[in-house]
């Protein structure tokens, strides 16, 4: 199957968007935003339900969502916010955190473009943007499967470098497993090798998350298991 046909299969064939847990999804090397222009309305109709999405990242967010059917009916607000990282995802406090699992609301905060050393999404390729949105959305998948106390446990993990590393690498593996391995690789490579981030920031990213070479190894392992 050609690369273009794989893209069309993954992004346009919405009738088969739910991937059985026993199947290994196709890992498409690069997703091209121009391929989505003709199918954007379809992506909105199938994956934009209960989603508040900023225009500048609509294609990347909907593309990532198309790989994660578990969030199809989940209410998610994506908003620009000056935070201390590129983006993050969490339950919406108050109205979301204390609800039953299927009724929770979530927020994904995105750092706007800046002139300082903060690594922001506008600096990255479309493929890399899809990868990091895929990572954050898999955080929401993880939250959606947890009780209130389970979510609190995840929050406490951020107070320990070892626990945070274990948690974030678990989410990275979930992102690869849903079919966004190469997209996550491109985000990781961009951050640690190409971005304007500080040396300290890049060191932190290498320690806490899977490195590009580790992501490639996991992708190859999945492909070999087919």
Protein described:
The structure is a single chain. By secondary structure, the protein is α/β, with parallel strands linked by helices. The chain has 8 helices and 4 strands, in the order ααβαβββααααα. The chain has helices at residues 3-11, 40-47, 58-65, 126-144, 148-157, 161-194, 199-208, 212-224, and strands at residues 51-52, 75-80, 87-91, 105-110. A 4-stranded mixed β-sheet has the order 1-2-4-3, with helices on one face. β1 (51-52), α3 and β2 form a beta-alpha-beta unit. α2 (40-47) packs across α3 and α4 runs antiparallel to α6 (161-194). The protein starts with a helix and ends with a helix. Residues 1-22 have low confidence and may be disordered.
> What structural category do the secondary elements indicate?
alpha/beta
Radius of gyration: 17 Å
Described by the principal axes of the CA atoms, the overall outline is: globular
Unreliable stretches covering 5 or more consecutive residues: 1-22
Identify the strand order in the major beta sheet.
1-2-4-3
Provide a brief overview of the structure:
With about 230 residues, this protein is of the alpha/beta class.
Helices and strands, with pairings:
Blueprint: H1 3-11, H2 40-47, E1 51-52, H3 58-65, E2 75-80, E3 87-91, E4 105-110, H4 126-144, H5 148-157, H6 161-194, H7 199-208, H8 212-224
Parallel strand pairs: 1-2, 2-4
Antiparallel strand pairs: 3-4
Helix pairs in contact: 2-3, 3-4, 4-6, 6-7, 6-8
Features of the shown structure:
226 residues, 8 helices, 4 strands
């Amino acid at each position: 199957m050609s690369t273009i046909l794989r893209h069309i299969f993954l992004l346009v064939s919405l009738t088969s968007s739910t991937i059985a847990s026993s199947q290994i999804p196709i890992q498409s090397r690069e997703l091209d935003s121009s391929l989505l222009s003709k199918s954007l309305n379809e992506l909105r109709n199938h994956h934009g339900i209960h989603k508040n999405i900023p225009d500048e990242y609509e294609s990347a967010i909907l593309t990532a969502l198309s790989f994660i059917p578990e969030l199809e009916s989940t209410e998610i607000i994506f908003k620009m916010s000056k935070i201390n990282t590129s983006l993050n995802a969490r339950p919406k406090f108050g109205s979301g955190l204390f609800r039953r699992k299927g009724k929770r609301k979530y927020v994904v905060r995105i750092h706007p473009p800046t002139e300082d050393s903060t690594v922001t999404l506008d600096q990255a390729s479309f493929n890399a943007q899809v990868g990091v949105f895929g990572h954050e959305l898999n955080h929401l998948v993880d939250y959606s499967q947890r009780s209130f106390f389970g979510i609190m446990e995840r929050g406490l993990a951020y107070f320990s470098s070892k626990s945070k590393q274990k948690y974030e690498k678990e989410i990275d593996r979930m992102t690869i497993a849903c079919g966004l391995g190469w997209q996550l690789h491109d985000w990781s490579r961009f951050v640690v090798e190409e971005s304007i981030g500080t040396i300290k920031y890049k060191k932190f990213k290498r320690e806490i998350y899977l490195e590009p070479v580790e992501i490639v190894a996991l992708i190859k392992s999945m492909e070999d298991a087919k």
